[in-house]
């Protein structure tokens, strides 16, 4: 291919990019008792392809950078969605997960149209207390960008502040996440340091829940949250509607 053709191809690719999404995954690979945990793969893969299909570039970051740990349970046959299978077989996408960007290197929150936090149990340990993430989420929300999270991903919202009021970002807003009912069903209620739905309510959120394991999404202005793995694609779709100016 000629230099001119390569240049024209690069311009063509750039022209179809609608915006930028930052996905922030956990770096935590175990519970305090040593039981493996990490990212729930479908909660990243489903939105990854939803955003990509609408012309958004996706960057994957994590607190430590490098390889993101994957919860082995999420790779079981019953847990794997078609998009999760696609992601695992997608060399370019998988490489992003193996070489995630260190969160400390993300300087401009406003350069992303959406910051999305997938779950897995890891976020209740690291994302919940990550001050770099808290700053980025606050800056993004203040700049009118979308902040989205699913399942245990909303743990990452706990330290973020509303830049206007100084209160917790979730305070006074409708929010959902993995519920106590679902936590008990998977037998992890004794392993997590807190029950996320209760912690969000304590932070002032108007917590809502749908039926266990069903799709449930809350959109409150620029804040979009989903209850469980089944809600991941719907969270991305809701975020896209907000970015398009409709909800």
Automatic annotation (TrEMBL):
Assigned keywords, A-Z = Lyase, Stress response
The record's annotation in InterPro entries points to:
Class_I_gatase-like, DJ-1/PfpI, Prot/Nucl_acid_deglycase
Domain DJ-1/PfpI stretches: 43-240
Recorded GO CC terms: cytoplasm
Origin: domain of life? Eukaryota
Q: Which GO terms describe its molecular function?
A: glyoxalase III activity
Q: Please, one GO biological process term?
A: methylglyoxal catabolic process to D-lactate via S-lactoyl-glutathione
Q: Which family does it belong to?
A: Belongs to the peptidase C56 family. HSP31-like subfamily.
| Descriptive protein name | Putative chaperone protein HSP31
